[in-house]
Amino acid sequence: MSKVFASLGMSLDGFIAGPGARPGNPLGDGGTRIHEWVYDVETWRARQNVEGGRAEQDDDVVRENFDRSGAYVMGRRMFAEGEVGWPDPPPFRAPVFVLTHTPREPWVRQGGTTFAFVTDGIHSALDQARKAAAGKDVQISGGAETVRQFIEAGLLDELQIHLAPLVLGAGVRLFDGVSPALGLEPARVVASPRVTHLTYLLTAPRA
Ligand SMILES: NC(=O)c1ccc[n+]([C@@H]2O[C@H](COP(=O)([O-])OP(=O)(O)OC[C@H]3O[C@@H](n4cnc5c(N)ncnc54)[C@H](OP(=O)(O)O)[C@@H]3O)[C@@H](O)[C@H]2O)c1
Predict the structure, then answer these.
(1) What's the 23 CA to ligand 1 centre distance in angstroms?
(2) pTM recorded for the entire structure
(3) Whose CA is nearest to atom 9 of ligand 1?
(4) 172 touches 21 (CB < 8 A)
(5) CATH of the domain at 167
(6) For residue range 161-175, what is the model confidence (pLDDT) as tens digits?
(7) Which of 27, 76, 120 has most ligand 1 atoms within 8 Å of CB, for mutation?
(8) Helix/strand/coil (H/E/C) assignment for every residue in 75-95
């Protein structure tokens, strides 16, 4: 069975975006600093249709995640920021299911990325993503509201946090409202000079 995983950049004080995130200010004030380690790695640049870049352990982590993902699920607020900024072809190169309460026709881009809009909830989005992924894993891309729902419903198998050595002070927190009973089993740590990649398997709730 394919896995359902999330992979999020985070500041040391627990924010996945700064305040004021919106289209035109992606990741909010100061939030792009969370991803500074990723912008110059080879695989990320290739997915932005740019040549060159670092090919070290940070690149291995990014490549692994793209390679294993057969489909993506994301929240409409994340999508709205990317819609105005992602190149064509966008980085996903796979079907993307966008959770929203507002119906919209699918948006077909080059390179295998189609954004389909799902208005009947996370279970439906996951069913559609699993089918589209054809045996590969499903990545829950974010943002916080979306990943939290998958955690709370027990649908997330694996959570990766890419912990950036910086303090944002305010913004969007991933774990706000998540039960302290959340069961997490540390599975892998990859440390680079730029960021610490933490992988947890989600387990049964703690007693
Ligand atoms: N650090 C990272 O790695 C990372 C990764 C991804 C995103 N981000 C950032 O996270 C921020 C966005 O996170 P967020 O928590 O504010 O929002 P989000 O999860 O991206 O999107 C929330 C929106 O998704 C829709 N939605 C969510 N659950 C739904 C459901 N069950 N049924 C129908 N619609 C549903 C709703 O859209 P409607 O309002 O259209 O109904 C809701 O307003 C952005 O700034 C983004 O850049 C950071």
Answers:
(1) 12
(2) 0.98
(3) 143
(4) yes
(5) 3.40.430.10
(6) 999 999 999 999 999
(7) 76
(8) EHHHHHHHHCCCCCCCCCCCC
* DSSP assignment string, 120-162: S-HHHHHHHHHHHHTTSEEEEEE-HHHHHHHHHTT---EEEEE
Mutate to test the pocket of ligand 1, among 72, 140, 146 (most ligand atoms within 8 A of CB): 146
Q: How many domains does the chain have?
A: 1
Domain enclosing residue 62, as ranges: 4-203
d(CA 102, ligand 1 centre) in Å: 13
Write the pLDDT tens digit of every residue in 131-168: 999 999 999 999 999 999 999 999 999 999 999 999 99
Token output for 3: 């896995």
